[in-house]
């Protein structure tokens, strides 16, 4: 029975984090209550080094009168390294209830002082093993332990990538460790609890080392050794015995080295594994390593070791192939049914020396052949050579592929058909916790949401990459910033982006300029909307999670960027100098250009204003009053200069593009009549383009927001619902299962965009998900109350185009749900608000006397705060679940136009049948839009139909739209 309960305790966004190096960690919790309007009034936290004994606590807050339940900073005595701290929480609420203590959670520290490292960086003796060999290194050491092991941890890292073994078994299911950071400035180390994997007496540890991002091929062909040209390992095992004594086994020159069965492994190119070269038992004790090479101490340019900040990369799902077939070109191909990122694991029974080759691709061409052209120089090839000892199972270790289709060569008997049961796809990405979901009445939109999620999963692999298949896979800043809010709706990304922002700050240039990609392996700096990731992402994280510490940590970096822009050119209030990508990949670009028609200085100045506004708002949060005033003045000056430079006296923008109008509206660059005119002209631009967009990376994330906020929500929905090129749903009609880089990655005739740059898994345009959550479902927050402390539920209906929508989001306070359903007669809205928060709910188009909640008239319910407005009824509520119903005064009609007498109805065939029944002599019915038929043009040729008023009224009566009689008769 739930009374009031504290649950879901986290420390620095994670549940029971192992090996953190934060000296003042923060804890958060959620509250479950069986009463509405529950607010926390006080809390108590206890921290103890003993799980069973909280009588002698290390830190006890006592009863703190506060409603704060997120990011409460530990303020007890200084923490020790390599120590597990247990904590528990209880709360009091506004109903004078006291909870029980929560279940006990913990965090464990890693090495808090660099002096505690005893390990040395080691690598094979170069005289015995070529340090530049493509073969993967094997390192090993045997050691003997006493009886009575109490606990054991491994702390360590490697460059480039490593896998760790103890006594013949993998230590962890983590992949591609230690991840990708700005290695010259920051390198993550990992902590593993190996208490149960060690044994009294003889033990052995083994390490596999691959090139990875550290020294492998990146960015350009034959571009290698960006961070260093030597692989190396750095590990130490701490063993604690029951008697309190400790022992440390660390990497040093007593370790031995060899190469093994992995002859080659690269991020872009795949892996070659010769099972005949396996050294059985190499990571176990009593293995004969007499022929192995020595190791040496390797000097490394690493400046700082940090405990792992991001969630680990893991296999998160296993997919079974849906089909295998032979292409017209004669290739044997398996189809995973989903464009995924990860690897294939397969089983085979074949004679020794059989070579099996897997080549990975995303799509088939229009002839049905597997298409590799968009991979550029990435090979995405996995080769396995059998050892011939019964059934063998293999998956690559230090690489990942982006693919749906896999060409198979050399598999025994494949000419008679592949045994699909022997193949699975292992999906790999940073193991983030799912946070939200969106769904609605349109199955294509639901598929779009799935594609957005799959695109995020495929590209959030330790860093937010642009694409996961071709020879790129880089942390492009613009892609990350346009997608950040959608990303945080879909998955909990606090630790993921904390780590990436620290790399951004590390790679930011001394003058404040920001490279194109983070970690910086590409070069290039200063582009508007790209460099602005430095302000947009920390601010979005603050809004989503209330993370003031991270905002403070990033503030100087944010300020440096704004000041860099400020110094550009002769006018500090206008950004009209330097290189800019502009509205990248916009469809209004000139022939053979990637850059849209919106002037670059227009875009740059708008984003300059946006970053300045964010910096001012961050200064407010952090109490920097002088800088609040300074950047308020700067913002005003930028906006004044923008209006002088880019807006005519009558309010017309100098650039007649969709993107110019979108970003002007989205970032509030104009006011009053100029704002109304800009919104109207944007709407006209969309209509003139038959409800299609022509925006690129800059305009697309905001286009539907600009329309909905400007009073043209129906246009925004029609834009989303378009199924022909260019549109989001066009991709889906072409079979997309992730988001494409280009609106026409596959053209209407089945041909492809240029091989030069054509990813089929590129999440930037998936930023539409943000609008789907916030505007269609109406799940948003009050911007003055970060982390959804005060929630806004304001769904926007779209007539018959969508008849229901539902969004669920697990905020840092708890689950929020906004769900609505329309029928011809009724509106139904269901809302769930977590404890310790409040919400403002808009019931669109509602009349107060029509509204019931839980079957009770609103005035008689326990909701006492409501306001009748032109938009509908606004309510203020506390936590709990709410179920509203009221009369659908507008029915499912969205628009009647005098010239064509358009009738919107849910089901086109049914509407046509009614028209034909009422007026059987009509050969062509009036135009009727629906979700099932994009327009009547697809079914009949339009012609003038002069229906008499009585016929129209009869049709309306059949459709139960009697309230429209009077309006129509006036026409």
TrEMBL record:
<dbReference type="InterPro" id="IPR035396">
    <property type="entry name" value="Bac_rhamnosid6H"/>
</dbReference>
<dbReference type="GO" id="GO:0016787">
    <property type="term" value="F:hydrolase activity"/>
</dbReference>
<feature type="domain" description="Alpha-L-rhamnosidase concanavalin-like">
    <location>
        <begin position="327"/>
        <end position="429"/>
    </location>
</feature>
<dbReference type="InterPro" id="IPR008902">
    <property type="entry name" value="Rhamnosid_concanavalin"/>
</dbReference>
<dbReference type="Pfam" id="PF17389">
    <property type="entry name" value="Bac_rhamnosid6H"/>
</dbReference>
<feature type="domain" description="Alpha-L-rhamnosidase six-hairpin glycosidase">
    <location>
        <begin position="434"/>
        <end position="776"/>
    </location>
</feature>
<dbReference type="InterPro" id="IPR013737">
    <property type="entry name" value="Bac_rhamnosid_N"/>
</dbReference>
<feature type="domain" description="Bacterial alpha-L-rhamnosidase N-terminal">
    <location>
        <begin position="149"/>
        <end position="317"/>
    </location>
</feature>
<feature type="domain" description="Alpha-L-rhamnosidase C-terminal">
    <location>
        <begin position="782"/>
        <end position="848"/>
    </location>
</feature>
<dbReference type="Pfam" id="PF25788">
    <property type="entry name" value="Ig_Rha78A_N"/>
</dbReference>
<dbReference type="Pfam" id="PF08531">
    <property type="entry name" value="Bac_rhamnosid_N"/>
</dbReference>
<dbReference type="InterPro" id="IPR008928">
    <property type="entry name" value="6-hairpin_glycosidase_sf"/>
</dbReference>
<dbReference type="Pfam" id="PF05592">
    <property type="entry name" value="Bac_rhamnosid"/>
</dbReference>
<dbReference type="InterPro" id="IPR035398">
    <property type="entry name" value="Bac_rhamnosid_C"/>
</dbReference>
<protein>
    <recommendedName>
        <fullName>alpha-L-rhamnosidase</fullName>
        <ecNumber>3.2.1.40</ecNumber>
    </recommendedName>
</protein>
<dbReference type="Pfam" id="PF17390">
    <property type="entry name" value="Bac_rhamnosid_C"/>
</dbReference>
<dbReference type="InterPro" id="IPR013783">
    <property type="entry name" value="Ig-like_fold"/>
</dbReference>
<dbReference type="InterPro" id="IPR016007">
    <property type="entry name" value="Alpha_rhamnosid"/>
</dbReference>
<dbReference type="InterPro" id="IPR012341">
    <property type="entry name" value="6hp_glycosidase-like_sf"/>
</dbReference>
<keyword id="KW-0378">Hydrolase</keyword>
């Amino acid at each position: 029975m739930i009374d009031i309960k504290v649950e879901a305790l986290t420390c620095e966004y994670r549940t029971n984090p192992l090996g953190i190096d934060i000296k003042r960690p923060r804890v958060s919790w959620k509250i479950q209550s069986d009463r509405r309007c529950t607010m926390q009034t006080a809390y108590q936290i206890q921290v103890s080094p003993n799980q069973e004994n909280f009588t002698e606590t290390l830190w006890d807050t006592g009863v703190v009168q506060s409603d704060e339940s997120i990011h409460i900073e530990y303020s007890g005595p200084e923490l020790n390294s390599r120590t597990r701290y247990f904590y528990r929480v209880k709360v009091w609420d506004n109903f004078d209830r006291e909870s029980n203590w929560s279940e006990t959670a913990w965090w464990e520290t890693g090495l808090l002082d660099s002096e505690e490292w005893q390990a040395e960086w080691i690598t094979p003796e170069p005289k015995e093993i070529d340090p530049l060999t493509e073969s993967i290194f094997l390192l090993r050491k045997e050691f003997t332990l006493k009886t009575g092991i109490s606990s054991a941890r491994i702390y360590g890292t490697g460059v480039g990538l490593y896998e760790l073994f103890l006594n013949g078994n993998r230590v962890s299911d983590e992949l591609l460790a230690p991840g990708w950071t700005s290695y010259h400035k920051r390198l993550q180390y990992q902590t593993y609890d190996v208490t149960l994997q060690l044994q009294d007496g003889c033990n052995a540890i083994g390490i596999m080392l691959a090139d990875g991002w550290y020294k492998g091929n990146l960015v350009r062909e034959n571009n290698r050794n960006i961070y260093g040209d030597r692989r190396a390992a750095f590990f130490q095992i701490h063993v604690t015995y029951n008697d309190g004594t400790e022992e440390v086994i660390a990497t040093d020159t007593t370790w031995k080295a060899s190469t093994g069965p992995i002859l080659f492994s690269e991020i872009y190119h795949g892996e070659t594994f010769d099972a005949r070269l396996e050294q059985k038992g190499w990571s176990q004790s009593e293995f004969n390593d007499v022929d192995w090479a020595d190791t040496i101490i390797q000097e490394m340019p690493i400046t700082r070791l940090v405990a792992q900040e991001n969630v680990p990369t893991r296999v998160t799902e296993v997919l079974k192939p849906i089909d295998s077939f032979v292409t017209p070109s004669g290739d044997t191909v398996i189809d995973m049914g989903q464009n995924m990122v990860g690897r294939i694991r397969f089983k085979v029974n074949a004679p020794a020396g059989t070579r099996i080759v897997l080549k990975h691709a995303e799509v088939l061409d229009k002839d049905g052949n597997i298409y590799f052209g968009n991979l550029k120089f990435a090979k995405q090839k996995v080769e396995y050579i059998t050892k011939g000892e019964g059934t063998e199972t293999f998956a690559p270790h230090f690489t990942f592929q982006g693919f749906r289709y896999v060409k198979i060569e050399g598999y025994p008997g494949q000419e008679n058909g592949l045994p699909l049961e022997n193949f699975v796809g292992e999906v790999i990405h940073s193991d983030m916790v799912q946070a939200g979901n969106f769904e609605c009445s349109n199955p294509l939109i639901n598929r779009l949401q799935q594609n957005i999620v799959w695109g995020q999963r495929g590209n959030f692999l330790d860093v937010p990459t642009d694409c996961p298949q071709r020879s790129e896979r880089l942390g492009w800043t613009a892609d990350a910033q346009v997608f950040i809010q959608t990303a945080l709706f879909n998955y909990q990304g606090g630790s993921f982006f904390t780590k990436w922002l620290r790399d951004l700050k590390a790679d930011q240039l001394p003058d404040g300029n920001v490279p194109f990609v983070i970690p910086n392996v590409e070069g290039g700096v200063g582009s508007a909307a790209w460099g602005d990731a430095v302000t947009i992402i920390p601010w979005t994280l603050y809004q989503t999670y209330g993370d003031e510490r991270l905002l403070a940590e990033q503030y100087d970096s944010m300020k440096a960027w704004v000041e860099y822009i400020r110094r550009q050119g002769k006018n500090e209030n206008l950004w009209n100098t330097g290189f800019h990508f502009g509205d990248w990949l916009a469809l209004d670009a000139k022939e053979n250009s990637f850059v849209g028609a919106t002037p670059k200085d227009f875009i740059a100045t708008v984003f300059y204003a946006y970053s300045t506004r964010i910096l001012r708002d961050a200064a407010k949060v952090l109490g920097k009053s002088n800088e609040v005033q300074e950047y308020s003045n700067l913002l005003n000056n930028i906006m004044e200069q923008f209006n002088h430079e880019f807006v005519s006296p009558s309010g017309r923008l100098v650039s007649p593009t969709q993107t110019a109008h979108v970003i002007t509206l989205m970032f509030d660059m104009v006011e009053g009549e100029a704002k109304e005119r800009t919104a109207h002209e944007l709407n006209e631009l969309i209509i003139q383009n038959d409800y299609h967009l022509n925006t690129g990376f800059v305009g697309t994330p905001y286009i539907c927001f600009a329309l909905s906020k400007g009073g043209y929500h129906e246009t925004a929905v029609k834009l989303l619902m378009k199924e022909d090129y260019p549109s989001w749903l066009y991709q889906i009609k072409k079979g997309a299962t992730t988001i494409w880089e280009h609106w026409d990655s596959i053209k209407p005739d089945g041909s492809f965009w240029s091989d030069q740059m054509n990813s089929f898994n590129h999440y930037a345009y998936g930023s539409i998900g943000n609008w789907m959550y916030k505007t269609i479902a109406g799940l948003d927050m009050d911007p003055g109350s970060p982390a959804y402390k005060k929630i806004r539920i304001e769904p926007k209906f779209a007539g018959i185009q969508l008849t229901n929508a539902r969004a669920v989001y697990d905020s840092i306070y708890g689950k929020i749900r906004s769900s609505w359903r329309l029928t011809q007669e009724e509106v139904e809205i269901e809302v769930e608000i977590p404890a310790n928060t409040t919400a403002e709910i808009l019931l669109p188009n509602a009349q107060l006397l029509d509204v019931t909640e839980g079957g009770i008239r609103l005035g008689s319910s326990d909701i006492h705060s409501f306001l009748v407005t032109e938009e509908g009824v606004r309510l203020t509520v506390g936590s709990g679940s709410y179920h509203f119903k009221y009369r659908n005064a507008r029915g499912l009609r969205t628009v009647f136009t005098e010239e064509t007498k358009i009738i919107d109805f849910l089901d086109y065939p049914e509407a046509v049948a009614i028209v034909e029944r009422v007026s059987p002599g009509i050969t062509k019915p009036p135009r009727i839009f629906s979700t099932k038929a994009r327009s009547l043009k697809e079914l009949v040729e339009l012609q003038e139909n002069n229906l008499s008023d009585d016929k129209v009224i009869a049709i309306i009566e059949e459709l139960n739209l009697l309230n429209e009689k009077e309006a129509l008769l006036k026409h």
